[in-house]
Amino acid sequence: WPELSCFEFWGPSVSVCLPLAVSEPMKSSHKGKRTSRSINKGTLRAALVRSLKAKSGRKDLDFKKASAIAAQTSALVPIEERGGYPVTRLPGSVDPKDWRTFSGDPVEVDLGRARWLPDEWGQGIKITHKNGRSAGKKDWGGRGLLTSYVAPDGKVFFHQHTSEEYAGKKFTVEGGKNGQIRLAKLQAAQAVQLARAQIKDSTSTASSSEKIGLDPDSSLFKLLSAAERRCLPKQDELHFCVVSARRATKIQGVSDIMMVHSHLQEAGAVATWYVDEESVKDYRSLGLKAVIGGRLTAARNKALRDARKMGKACVQLSDDISAWEYRDGPNAKERTDDANNAAHAAARRLIVSPVAAARFILAKMRGARAPQPKLGGVYMLGSCARTFSGDAFHRHHFILGDFFVVDGGSVTFDEEMSLKEDYDFTCSHIKAHGSVMRCQRMTLNVKHYDNGGGACTTRDKKGKEEKRNIGILQRKWPGVFRLNPKRKNEVIMRWKKADIDAAEDEEDEHDDPRRANGRGAGRKVGRPAKT
């Protein structure tokens, strides 16, 4: 477990770092107005802390009320599914629901866990008593709160060294490994619930005692035409592939990995993980079906070859997706931001599994008019509000590498490329097969622009790799790519073809060129380019 040093930035009271960025509508024409609130890392624990402070009755603690969605989702997490719950309950140990300090103050099981805490110990949080030092101080979140470490017999301590003295041994990162793995898995489940709660706005659509599941596959498939439904593949006709690297030894990486794994598992699918040779044992230790794939484009090509050998369509997905969403509703009445936002907000929101999403895309591809595409995918931004001015499906536009379906063919990824390989792959498919299939109303919650491992290792601060790969694109596809004037080292793709619908082209030409997934927009991957 050599990479656990990456946890050293955690203070003893810092806990949940959720792999979540939720989608928001595009900016309204009214200055500064947004219709969605950001939910990000730390949301659940912040909600728990604010709830405890509210119940304490202390008037001197100045804190903001948690969002309804965060508060409700936090309340749905039972203490047994919190990171602070002991990994192993020893016979005769005190039940965590009964934890109390020597003076009788209740200790709530924490959502987080110190990296060095042994399996049989637990972590909690308690509200402090008001004293002479409390008056006149603003509370920025930590005041009035004590992180507590609880021994199996219920004794409560507030520091690592006092806990070690009582236990008679040193607490080490190696000794806390199991707790960190469990924490990562729990965070994955919590992130999925937060993403779904935001999509469904569960404060008005679900009981406060219910977790949010997937919408039935049939609710998505009924949007297909009769001809397309006849093309709907069975699940076993798909080969699910996750391309990942160097993320199975870090708490945030494991959390993301288990989040995607749980999505697939919930839908009854088992993915093959294509990883670097050095990491394959780490991924397998998490119970994953992992094979050596090599570097990014080599791994993608191996997945394509494996799918062809099996006679299956290839579904490739990133290792940190927290939700798949489809918006079903009529187009905006006029081509304005406000009208698009209104149509987007009024549309029915479906939470779909990666399996249902892939089957839907493939049915659209196989049922499409000629030229029949062999590549399909989702909208490239976290919010699809802009798309409500145009068609729900586009045929000559960029297919995002985070989630796509390939239905046979001989097109492969250019292994000379280390970044922006999905742009090149899209162009190769359009050239070879005449079109692709992009589902404009299907979006992802993804956040890997600044994740450790994967393509982020390839990016450099000076942007040399970005520029090198942009040069390859411009050399291979003259006239298709131009530099984005508002975003450094990013490109705008526009496939020039006489029979492309003018409105379709216009929609992308006016798309928002800023990092569309910065705060609350779903995907922090630095590639929300117009296509």
Largest beta sheet, briefly?
8 strands, mixed
Q: What is the mean predicted local confidence, pLDDT? A: 80
Structure class:
alpha+beta
Radius of gyration: 24 Å
β-strand percent reads 5-15%
Gross geometry: globular
Instruction: Please tally the helical runs, counting DSSP H or I stretches of 4 or more residues.
Output: 16
Low-confidence stretches: 1-41, 202-208, 501-531
Helix content: 25-40%
Number of strands: 17
Distance between the termini: 42 Å
The main sheet orders its strands as 7-6-5-8-13-11-14-12
How would you describe what is shown here?
With 531 residues, the protein is α+β, with helices and mostly antiparallel strands. The chain contains 16 helices and 17 strands. It has helices at residues 43-56, 68-75, 160-167, 177-200, 202-205, 217-221, 226-229, 251-266, 280-285, 296-310, 337-346, 354-366, 421-433, 455-458, 464-476, 502-509; strands at residues 108-109, 122-127, 145-150, 156-157, 238-243, 272-275, 289-292, 313-317, 321-328, 348-352, 375-378, 393-394, 403-406, 437-439, 442-446, 481-483, 491-493. The strands form four sheets. An eight-stranded mixed beta sheet has the order 7-6-5-8-13-11-14-12, with helices on both faces. It has a four-stranded antiparallel beta sheet with strand order 1-2-3-4. The protein has a three-stranded antiparallel beta sheet with strand order 10-9-15. Helix 1 (43-56) packs across helix 2 (68-75) and helix 2 packs across helix 4 (177-200). The longest helix is centred in the middle third of the chain and has 24 residues, at 177-200. The two termini are 42 Å apart.
